[in-house]
Amino acid sequence: MNSESNISDKAILHQFGYTQQLLRDMGGFSNFAVSFSVISILTGAVTLYGQGLTSGGPVVMGIGWPLVTLFVLCISASMAELASAIPTSGALYHWASLLGGSGWGWITAWLNLIGLVATVAGIDYGAAQFLAPLVNVKDTPLNLLWLFGLIVLSQAIMNHIGIRVVARLNNYSAIYHIAGVAVIVVALLLFAPKQPVAFLFTKTFTTITDKPYWICFLSGLLQAQWTYTGYDASAHTIEETRDARVRAPWGIYLSVAVSGFFGYIMLALVTLSIKDLGKTAAASNPFTYIFEQALGGTFSHVITWIVTIAMWFCGLACVTSTSRMIFAFARDNGLPGSRCWGTVSKKYRTPANAVWLGSFLAVSLPVVILAIVRMDADKMGKLYPAVTGISTVALYISYGLPLMLKAIAIRQGRWTSRTDGPWSLGNWSLPILYISLVWIALISVLFVLPPNDLTGYIFGGTLGVLAVLYMLTAKGKFRGPIPQAESEEAILEMEAEFEQSSLDHGR
Length: 507
What we know:
It is built from 24 helices and no strands. It has 507 residues and is mainly alpha-helical.
């Protein structure tokens, strides 16, 4: 470990009034890997492949994916700037609080938390759907729920044990994802019959008959947009990253860029390997159906295992991100029972209680949605798109609020180039910020309208509950980020006590 870099990271954290409690042991690749694993092109792009195909057809992959990638690169660059300037685990919540006040911080924190919990639920419920046929379990809602619960349990245990274990697994996960994509691409490139390249850019298709095609196409962008969620993980683990003000911003940005490149290659080859578009769209799992038709059932079975394992890695990284967000919010007394959720395990140096709270909430979400739709068979098929839609809208609004507040601060002269961290866009900062805000506003409306109406109802109800909760518990009471100590001497004393206590627990 570079001691000079570590001291610098500590000194910056001390400026915000926080002690170095979490273990700062992540390098640049590990920080990138945690966001790259949460994005997981072998999860979002695969589980929602049918959503894209039935909403707009091959052009959703050929044109929609790079379109969404371009806008998300703008958003990730703007977020990277803020991470460089404000390098705390509170991330979005701290950014919004410092730029707009405690009220903005509170709503940003809750939306980010809801989005992260829904993302864990979406990832791991999707993993359960893929795992069920592999282990000969009938895919009934009850069976999928207990498989889903076991998957979340395993990830919570790994996160409880420590960041070193999780960081190593995430490093392996990043390599595994690229290798998995390579296996898919090479197999299809060498052995599968393929459509003409124009098929990817001109072939339209939709099973939605009551909407104009352009609305269907935009709805299909949920496939790519949900894939590109969770890259704020690099910011949430920033207090555990060395040389954090440079490495974490690069982790945010590069996780999107690398995912966009490899994801597009994979989706292009998969889509060009479609034999019969109508039959593929009608299949229960269009992605695996393509491999069955192109390369046979045995290889399709192998691909399903590759994807399922990738989903487990993805969920693992998302539990990490969710727990750090809970820890940071609770550290500032933003949650009921904050004293419990804002503690750090002295033995493992992890926010262990926050890990288990985030995991419990993630398991609860599909249970609640199933309870809502259990009497309506027509809505059962909307469960997964609803979970992914909630996570996408909640996360992107939580991304957009601090970006909007930064734009206001720039116009008012409260944020200047001297406020920027070492990772900065310079003169491009404001134009890219505006592009990001326009895109976030568009998708936040798009993904709650029919055919994503179940998402809209649930998200609308959630906003209503948050409004009541804020008025009753937070307005005039919640202070926002609270320094753990008022002086450098007090912070150093707290750190020394924590280090000694950690050594005692480790014996």
